[in-house]
Design a protein that fits this description.
The protein has 90 residues and is an alpha+beta fold. It has a single domain (2-88), classed as Winged helix-like DNA-binding domain superfamily/Winged helix DNA-binding domain (Arc Repressor Mutant, subunit A, Orthogonal Bundle), CATH 1.10.10.10. It has helices at 14-25, 33-39, 48-62, 84-88, and strands at residues 2-5, 8-11, 30-32, 72-75, 79-82. The protein is globular, with a radius of gyration of 12 Å.
Length: 90
């Protein structure tokens, strides 16, 4: 899968694609880590580190400034929010 953001194309591996798709299907609400494990990894044994790496890699591809994410934001100790208004600006 290839993702194009602001004219720049990036390869999007399967899990990153599933993660982005799930966020896009559930915009503007907190998505818990457990929910992501169930829906994206389908309960495969994984941990927070794996999720964090995939979120980071996805942010590298879609955020204007990775040090200040606006599209996928972290909700401390809870999960993440996909901000549809910020995503529309891409």
């Amino acid at each position: 899968m290839t993702l194009t953001v602001n004219g720049s194309s990036s390869r999007l591996p399967s899990l990153e694609y599933k993660l982005l798709l799930y966020f896009m299907e559930n915009p503007d609400r907190v998505v818990s880590k457990d929910e992501l494990f169930q829906k994206v990894w389908q309960d495969a044994i994984t941990g927070d580190g794996t999720l964090n790496v995939h979120i980071f890699r996805l942010r590298e591809k879609i955020e204007k400034n990775i040090s200040k994410p606006e599209v996928i934001t972290t909700v401390y100790r809870t999960g993440y929010i996909f901000n549809s208004a910020a995503a529309e600006l891409l």
